[in-house]
Predict the structure.
Amino acid sequence: SQQGEEDPQALSIQEGENATMNCSYKTSINNLQWYRQNSGRGLVHLILIRSNEREKHSGRLRVTLDTSKKSSSLLITASRAADTASYFCATDGGYQKVTFGTGTKLQVIP
Amino acid sequence: DTGVSQDPRHKITKRGQNVTFRCDPISEHNRLYWYRQTLGQGPEFLTYFQNEAQLEKSRLLSDRFSAERPKGSFSTLEIQRTEQGDSAMYLCASSPPRSADTQYFGPGTRLTVL
């Protein structure tokens, strides 16, 4: 079963715009991660935020975490066509068992 | 660093046949994970090894599925008596000892059961 639910399921934006996707989860976590997956390929780790952190930045990525609401958001600024991919949040509740969400499919139109 | 590799990349088989997939983790990564991903869904955890020990198995891993990591390096995932519902992408990931939170994924093996 999926722990997280991403919202929206699909997002289409113009190159240069910002993209925001959200993730809600159900149980308490140690950390939350975001991954990217290009069509038919493996996943690439983007960023990890720990349960005691509220915000984290990495390049054009900004992640927030609200443990009281059990939600996280991923913001991609100044999007590029190469950002077109599916984005998944993944929660780690301990014991190395990572549970992925259902994903947001992002399309960036050149 | 050659990354996580998986073999084969694609496998087409007939229902009832057995299949075996191989995963080679990044060198010196002691943790290895198997996931299954169906179309439009996120990966679902199947099992996890620390070195050669299989420490956790999902209820998704029925008795037709078996995974091994005999020498703590590469791993195999075998599916016996395949069913059409086994059609999916099978992903392998590994993580290093000092940064177990981050998993590095292989390209996956896409299984189609006819």
About this structure: Chain B touches chain A at residues 4, 31, 33, 35, 40-45, 48, 50, 55-56, 89, 91, 93, 95, 100-108, 110 (CB under 8 Å). Chain B has a mean pLDDT of 92. The first strand of chain B starts at residue 5 and ends at 7.
